[in-house]
Specification:
By secondary structure, this protein is mostly helical. It is globular and about 30 Å long. The N and C termini lie close together (7 Å).
């Protein structure tokens, strides 16, 4: 669970950097930021607990309801 929460924090940090540079949050499914290796050099993380992908709220930049 701790690794999942760490991944969420990384995603939220990177989405805030994306917004600072681009003026808007990335796509809800993270397809645009995930394709840019500047933000995720090792690829977009998936949940280490259940293997699901993360999505974000494009208004707040926070990871959507991903809890364990």
């Amino acid at each position: 669970r701790a690794a999942c929460y760490a991944s969420q924090g990384d995603i939220e940090l990177q989405t805030k950097l994306w917004k600072r540079i681009n003026g808007t949050y990335p796509a809800a499914d993270l397809s645009d930021i995930g394709a840019n290796t500047t933000y995720f050099p090792s690829g977009l993380p998936v949940c280490p607990v259940d293997g699901t992908t993360y999505t974000i709220n494009t208004t707040t930049g926070l990871v959507n309801g991903h809890t364990h």
